[in-house]
Design brief:
The complex is a heterotrimer of chains A (304), B (425) and C (284).
Chain A (H helix, E strand, L loop, with lengths): L1 H35 L3 E4 L2 E5 L3 H8 L3 H35 L5 H7 L2 H4 L2 H12 L4 H8 L16 H13 L1 H12 L3 H9 L4 H12 L1 H16 L3 H6 L13 H10 L9 H28 L5
Antiparallel strand pairs in A: 1-2
Chain B lengths: L1 H30 L4 E7 L5 H14 L3 E7 L2 H13 L6 E4 L3 H7 L19 H6 L11 E13 H7 L7 H13 L3 E3 L6 H11 L1 H4 L1 H10 L7 H12 L13 H9 L3 E7 L2 H8 L5 E4 L12 E11 L6 H11 L2 H11 L2 E2 L10 H9 L3 E3 L1 H6 L6 H14 L4 H13 L8
Parallel strand pairs in B: 1-2, 1-3, 5-6, 8-10
Antiparallel strand pairs in B: 3-8, 4-6, 4-7, 4-8, 4-9
Helix pairs in contact in B: 8-18, 11-19, 18-19
Chain C lengths: L11 H31 L4 H6 L11 H9 L2 H31 L6 H9 L10 H10 L6 H25 L3 H9 L4 H12 L1 H17 L2 H6 L8 H6 L9 H23 L6 H6 L1
Helix pairs in contact in C: 1-13, 3-13, 4-5, 4-7, 4-10, 7-10, 8-9, 10-13
The chains are: A mainly alpha (304), B alpha/beta (425), C mainly alpha (284).
Chain lengths: 304, 425, 284
């Protein structure tokens, strides 16, 4: 019994150790070293003295950090909600349709992931062209004689975040599609056929048979969406800039963090202490929400 | 077993680069035995060829020094430089930012104070030295290289076609704008999508309204603040210009606004002196001139905003300080300053360089006679929240109609007062 | 298969549903192909044309830009460097990642959630945040200006999501298969290699492409750690087209068009694993 346990432990170590070592040394160690900075006050790039939670107090209690932080966090929430509702629902639909061999599915599964292959630089520039005042989208509205529908997609405080989210959905919807496709394809055919022959309708087939069996992949997508939404950075950086223009309406805690910690070339100077404090908050938020969503969805998992 | 092959292949692949690296280091060593190699960083990928040719001249004169140039991406430059310097590495000589950007590195102890090494710095203008001086200890950490000036560009051909002349009052300017709109041109090409271009706009049209250098000195000293009616009035005037800007100006970014001007769609553009070379490259036929935006009456001085933009600095931890100084001296020579004017069309800070051959630079120098410090960069970009970041965002709010000029002024005031001592009394 | 969506013989209601869905998916395909096309035509245009008439077709198709980028700007070298770095990093991401996922999902033990969260916490904040300590670390290890520095960083960056996604899929594999293999005398490693890995092939393919793209496109870490010109990667080469005040869009799009090719090939190659059949075969 002891030997068996030991063997099991040895095998687990064998499988887990190499990856864990690399991640610990090259990510967790530097990350924690940098988060540790949040307990110090900083004179430019040199740490000055230990201030305990002083930076957190300033972050949550003083103008303008407090306003910037909650404004940015609000945008992250919008990102999460929109991504879950729109991107992941469409992804589930696309994945399901492809798994059911809808006409053209062989082509679709070879194309849907292509937007992810684009460099973010290309995405930012091309969609900037499509969404600018004289861009493709507004020209299209002119063409169909609906000039009133034209909008300043990236320059209007009410629309800018939604526009960028839309571009991000364009870029990423293929990912949940393929994850759900792989998950549904892994559902044993017998289950489906049996249910089908029992006369279950489409709706019932999906919700009663397929959905419970793909909960693990829903967990994956949900957690990745949580992490992705709290880490939004490059999308903003390439489309409206590090300052979350216009007037911080597209700011996220990712851009706020980077701008605060490193400064922005066109507008700022670095404030490492508060920047690191924002980093800690992002980290804790992501960790707790991910853990919560893992637990919630794990409860509903069905073992075959 | 397939996996084995994969692993073997990988190990081979991982070893090859190290072989390369090893070989490279060896090769470099053989050449560099008697020669000192200096690392030189810039944030100007567009000027790589220029610096390469200048370095060639330098190396010919100093055969024992080799300079390796690396042009970093401008937006990542500060981060990479900070990481390298904090890590005890980094270049020997590099382009340094001015004002707050310089203070970041100087106050961290990464820059070598240059005054003891280069007594000739004393002959530089006070404006250019201010950008290279840390406000904390008052020492000079950079050899000033280039200054920038913000003003109004106008299309000479269109002015001729419509019989317009350079305005001497604000209302004349608006009359010119109206004439252009009537003739089917866009009067003013500026947009508001990129916040920093609104700081440029302030630099171009603002000083005449807020009162130029007098206001600058007063506000820096805390004798007045941003709730000053003159400042708020300036914001209102800026907002009023939206009538002459492109349709949906909130979506017009930096590239678009410049294209508006060099494609001769727009007759005016408020921008910095650094655009001249770009305009000429994009449209060699473009005939443009510049003027300072006038105030309400012809008696008001028409200011241009000026700021020190770039200097050359030395890494305090450099192992080759003597050679670095030699190179720094070269970069501060009249000859190099002259090359900056002729090849890059930049306004050199090196004193005594004759720039009269380039009519554009000559005209910039003429306008500089009525120069005023570029408000937020020169005065309020040393701590967070910087005046620049506050202005850029709030100006977007004003231009977009979500913030009133008064609210903008209040928030700027509150933001700066959160750390700026003269505002806290 | 009887569960397939077939147009023929379906009820009217179902026909309408299939047609609408099909149209939506075709529309999305158009939304994907057009920017790709836009990117490629831009590579044949001059800077001015890109900025003024971005949607017009190029006046002529000549490969001058490609020659400039590939030969004069040294992209052939950058391309090779990127291939080396990405391949090396990805191989270890997949190897260590799948092993880690196996170790977490196929055994029941108390610390599994802890290890799982340790891995996962590696993607909760971009590593860019820790660039200064990371620089110190890489310098201490003597890896500055070696490709190993970015390879190690990329492996570390790819592992968390790989472990996370694969363990989700591995959990779904019935335990009976493992017992059967054990009775046949397979060791744990052989079970991982012969039973679990083939069954997660679609997910492995997905994870490969999911991680290869950001690694292939990342310019920040190579920019910081690979100063020598002979080591630079493709995205670093790309970044040199961004000036402070002027961007060379023409050459930028040329190199972007070149840069996407290996990823397209990898994706098309991997997409064959998304097709059923293979996994089904392994189960039966």
């Amino acid at each position: 019994m002891e030997i068996k346990k030991l063997r099991k432990g040895a095998w687990i170590t064998f499988f887990v150790a190499p990856g864990l070592l690399v991640v610990s040394v090259f990510i967790l160690l530097p990350l924690f070293m940098s988060l540790y900075n949040s307990f110090f006050s900083w004179n430019q790039l040199i740490s000055d003295r230990f201030v305990g939670l002083g930076n957190f107090k300033r972050l949550f209690g003083s103008y303008p950090y407090k306003d910037r932080f909650f404004n940015a966090l609000g945008n992250n929430v919008t990102w999460f909600v929109m991504t879950m509702l729109v991107q992941n629902s469409i992804g589930l639909l696309f994945g399901y349709l492809m798994s059911r061999r809808i006409a053209g599915n062989q082509v679709f599964r070879r194309i849907f992931f292509i937007p992810v292959l684009f460099s973010i630089i290309a995405v930012g520039f091309l969609w900037g062209l499509y969404l600018k005042p004289s861009g493709l989208l507004n020209s299209f509205f002119n063409l169909i004689n609906q000039p009133d529908l034209r909008q300043v997609w990236l320059g209007d405080e009410r629309l800018a975040t939604l526009s960028i989210i839309f571009v991000n959905i364009w870029r990423w919807v293929g990912f949940p599609s393929l994850v759900f496709l792989a998950a549904i394809d892994a559902v044993p055919e017998e289950c489906l056929e049996a249910a089908y022959l029992d006369g279950a309708g489409e709706w019932k087939l999906f919700w009663r048979v397929i959905f419970p069996l793909i909960i693990p992949s829903i967990t994956i997508i949900t957690v990745l969406t949580v992490i992705g939404s709290l880490n939004v950075f490059e999308q903003i950086y390439t489309m409206t800039g590090l300052d979350g223009a216009p007037n911080y309406s597209t700011d996220t805690i990712g851009t706020l963090f980077y701008r605060t910690a490193f400064g922005s070339v066109d507008s700022g100077s670095p404030e490492i202490g508060i920047g690191s404090a924002i980093g800690v908050v992002i980290y804790l938020l992501t960790f707790c929400i991910s853990l919560a969503s893992i637990y919630v969805t794990r409860k509903r998992e069905v073992q075959l | 077993m397939k996996l084995k092959t994969v692993v073997v292949l990988l190990v081979v692949m991982m070893l090859t680069p190290m072989l390369f690296a090893g070989g490279a280091a060896e090769a470099e060593q053989q050449v560099s035995a008697p020669v000192t190699t200096l690392e030189f960083w810039t944030w100007r990928p567009e000027d790589v060829d220029f610096y390469a040719s200048q370095i060639a001249i330098f190396e010919a004169r100093n055969p024992d020094i080799k300079v390796v140039q690396t042009a970093q991406k401008n937006t990542e430059y500060n981060t990479i430089l900070a990481a390298s310097l904090a890590g005890g590495a980094g270049p020997d000589v590099f382009q340094g930012r001015a004002y707050g950007g310089l203070a970041t590195f100087a106050d961290s102890g990464y820059l070598e104070p240059l005054e003891p090494l280069m007594p000739e710095l004393k002959s530089y203008s006070a404006t250019s030295l201010l950008g290279a001086t840390s406000p904390t200890d008052g020492k000079i950490y950079g050899s000033p290289a280039v200054s920038q000036t913000v003003f109004m560009y106008y299309n000479k051909a269109v002015y001729q076609e419509l019989g317009l002349s350079i305005p001497t009052t604000w209302s004349q300017l608006l009359t010119n704008f109206d004439a252009m709109e009537a003739a089917g041109y866009l009067a003013l090409g500026n947009g508001a999508k990129d916040g920093w271009t609104l700081e440029t706009m302030l630099g171009g049209m603002g000083p005449a309204f807020y009162g130029g250098t007098d206001f600058f000195n007063a506000v820096v000293a805390g004798e007045t603040n941003f709730l000053d009616p003159k400042f708020i009035k300036m914001v209102e005037k800026m907002k009023s210009l939206t009538a002459y800007m492109p349709e949906m100006y909130m979506g017009i970014g930096y590239e678009d606004m410049r294209a508006n001007f060099f494609n001769e769609i727009a007759g005016h553009l408020i921008a910095g002196s650094y655009e001249a070379a770009y305009f000429a490259a994009q449209n060699p036929d473009l005939d443009f001139g510049i003027f300072a935006v006038p105030g309400e009456s012809a008696a008001d001085p028409a200011y241009v905003s000026v700021y020190a933009d770039m200097n050359f600095a030395m890494n305090a931890a450099s192992k080759h300080k003597e050679e670095a100084l030699t190179f720094l001296r070269f970069l501060s020579s009249k000859e190099f300053g002259k090359a900056m004017v002729t090849d890059l069309r930049m306004v050199t800070s090196v004193p005594g360089v004759d720039a009269s051959q380039d009519p554009f630079i000559a005209r910039v120098l003429e306008l500089q006679k009525n120069a005023t410090p570029y408000l937020f960069l020169v005065g309020f970009r040393y701590a967070q929240p910087t005046g620049s970041s506050l202005w850029q965002a709030l100006a977007q709010g004003v231009m977009g109609g979500t913030v009133t000029p008064r609210q903008a002024a209040e928030e700027i005031q509150a933001g700066i007062a959160s750390y700026y001592k003269p505002f806290q009394n | 298969m009887i569960t397939d969506f077939r147009y023929r013989g379906a009820s009217v209601q179902k026909k309408v549903f299939i047609i609408i869905m099909f149209m939506i998916m075709v529309f999305y395909v158009v939304l994907i192909i057009y920017p790709l096309f836009n990117m490629v035509i831009s590579s044949f245009k001059s800077n001015k044309d890109i900025l003024t008439t971005p949607f017009a077709l190029p006046a002529s198709v000549d490969l001058e830009n490609y020659r400039t980028v590939w030969v004069d700007k040294g992209f052939s070298r950058y391309f090779l460097n990127s291939l080396i770095v990405t391949t090396a990093a990805m191989a270890f991401v997949i190897l260590f990642g799948s092993m880690g996922a196996y170790g977490i999902s196929r055994y029941t033990y108390r610390a599994s959630t802890l290890i799982y969260m340790l891995f996962l916490s590696g993607i909760m904040l971009p590593l860019k945040a820790a660039i200064i300590p990371l620089f110190l670390l890489i310098r201490k290890l003597g890896l500055i200006n070696t490709q190993l520095s970015v390879i190690m960083i990329f492996i570390a960056m790819g592992l968390p999501s790989t472990v996370f996604i694969l363990s989700g899929f591995m959990k779904g594999i019935p335990l009976e298969l493992e017992y059967a293999a054990r009775i046949d005398g397979c060791s744990d490693f052989q079970i991982y290699r012969r039973v679990v890995m083939p069954m997660t092939a679609p997910a492995v393919a997905l994870v490969t492409i999911y991680n290869a793209v950001p690694i292939w496109n990342d310019f920040f870490f190579p920019l910081v750690f690979l100063q020598s010109n002979r080591l630079k990667t493709l995205p670093v080469g790309l970044s040199t087209f961004f000036g402070q005040h002027s961007t060379n869009w023409s050459l930028l799009f040329t190199s972007l068009s070149l840069a996407i090719i290996p990823m397209l090939i990898l994706y098309l190659f991997m997409s064959k694993y998304f097709i059923k059949g293979m996994t089904a075969g392994a189960v039966k």
